[in-house]
Amino acid sequence: MNAPKRTPLGPWYAKKEKPIKIPSKPLTTSKKRVAHEGVQSKRRPIKKIIGVFTVVVIIGLLLWNAPIIISYIQNLSSSTNSSNESYTELTLRNLPISEINATIIEFGDTEYYFSYQIIGMIPMGHYLHVHAPFQSKTYIPTEGETYSDLGIEIKVSKVGSDYISNYIVILVKPTIQNYMASLYYTKVSIALDETKAVNISSGLINKTNQYWFSYTQITHPSFNESKLTIRTDSQSKSYFVIAGLFTIREFEIETRVYKIKSGYMIIYVKPLY
Questions:
Q1: What confidence tens digit (pLDDT) does each residue in 188-206 have?
Q2: pLDDT digits (tens, 9 = 90+) for 18-52
Q3: Rounded to whole angstroms, how far apart are CA atoms 248 and 238?
Q4: Which 3 state secondary structure label does DSSP give 215?
Q5: Do residues 231 and 221 make contact, with C-beta atoms less than 8 angstroms apart?
Q6: Which residue range is the domain that position 75 belongs to?
Q7: Which of 136, 165, 212, 213 has the CB geometry, 3.0–4.6 Å to 131, for a possible disulfide?
Q8: Per the domain annotation, does 74 fall within a domain?
Q9: Which residues, 6+ apart, have CB-to-CB distance to 240 below 8 Å?
Q10: Please, are residues 142 and 159 in contact by the beta-carbon 8 Å criterion?
């Protein structure tokens, strides 16, 4: 038999294995969860307190500033109402041609005529007619639409009908206080058999001329003729005129006859210099 050799320390023996130390186990997942939930449960009351405190502060601020908030709302409402109050409300009806009367409004130096008309049967055409001196516009009115021209703004508030007729309600306000003046016209009203002196100025060359305008009528057995006389320092000329159809360009001015009545005439004059 082959036996192990002897050693100086004595007979041979097998080495003993050293015991293995097992470290202590960390907290299990379940223990961690319990610890986390414990922290969360402590935080929840704090969050509730903060939330309640925030709500109380907001309510307190609202109550404290209630007069200011109410005043702001009232001012906002009044400003909206005042903006609507700046408009003039008109109800225009579609009437038979024999009964149509245009609604007249004067803004500044300008008269505006408004009328509403339905033409045709099927389909029917709805038309809003707007007339300023020597100019006109026609719109197909749509509820809620806004039109701006001729120195005015028009809002179509309602398009409807009742037991009387079809009608529209519009809101009108000027965008230019003196529309004809913005076109360099001067409005001149002349009483019958009156002579009126008017200074006409040109801002382009800083020049002013004086003119005299007279309105007379020539009476015939069955009709009257209207006569307009224009005079300067050096010359004079008379014209038989018809309202809206007569434009005179002489004496360095343009004269347009706008309206002729039995007691007065209205003309618009602008410089050509």
A1: 999 999 999 999 998 777 8
A2: 555 555 555 455 555 555 555 555 556 676 777 77
A3: 11
A4: strand
A5: no
A6: 32-80
A7: 136
A8: yes
A9: 218, 225, 226, 227
A10: yes
